[in-house]
Amino acid sequence: MTNIDLPRACLEGKLDSLDFSSILSLTHLHLHHNNLLGPIPPSIGSLTNFISLDLAYNRMMCNLPLSLANLSQFLELDLSNNEFQGSIPMELGNLCSIVHLRVYTNQLTGFIPSSLGNLTKLRTLYLRRISLYGTILEEIGNLVYLTHLTFSFI
């Protein structure tokens, strides 16, 4: 098991040039409250033991990578307070083990994907301060362990 835990470490630059697939034992990557830019490297999706990614409070941008959906052991994803764009990918509904999902305060737009109803172990879902539209999904009722839900619509 390998953890990289460097919050508030004054890190700057882009992660997209890093190849995380060479660190197969990586389970936790916590780089919140730094000055990281650019997209999340797609190689993160190849980490079969990966369970926690916290990149909150950076300046990361681009669309959320579809490779995140490959993380079958994933428990926690916090991408809040960045500059991510595009929609919330339907593929995030494949994260069947995830317990905490936080993507608030980004430049995300669109509908809440109905596939989020597949995340039956989810306890925390924060979707506020992003440009969502549409109706509250009936599938949210599938999230029987959900204790914290926040979202906002435009």
Structure write-up:
With 154 residues, the protein is mostly beta strands. It has one domain: Leucine-rich repeat, LRR (right-handed beta-alpha superhelix) (Alpha-Beta Horseshoe), CATH 3.80.10.10. 0% of the residues lie in helices and 34% in strands. It is built from no helices and twelve strands. It has strands at residues 2-5, 12-14, 26-30, 35-38, 52-54, 59-63, 76-78, 83-86, 100-102, 107-110, 124-132, 148-153. Strands 1, 2, 3, 4, 5, 6, 7, 8, 9, 10, 11 and 12 form a twelve-stranded parallel β-sheet that branches. The radius of gyration is 15 Å and the shape is globular. The mean pLDDT is 91.
Q: What is the gyration radius calculated from CA atoms?
A: 15 Å
Mean pLDDT: 91
Number of helices: 0
Q: What's the CATH class, please?
A: Alpha Beta
What's the name of the CATH homologous superfamily?
Ribonuclease Inhibitor
Order of helices and strands: EEEEEEEEEEEE
**Count of beta strands:** 12
Q: What share of the residues lie within helices?
A: under 10%
* CATH topology (fold) name: Leucine-rich repeat, LRR (right-handed beta-alpha superhelix)
- Architecture (CATH level 2) name: Alpha-Beta Horseshoe
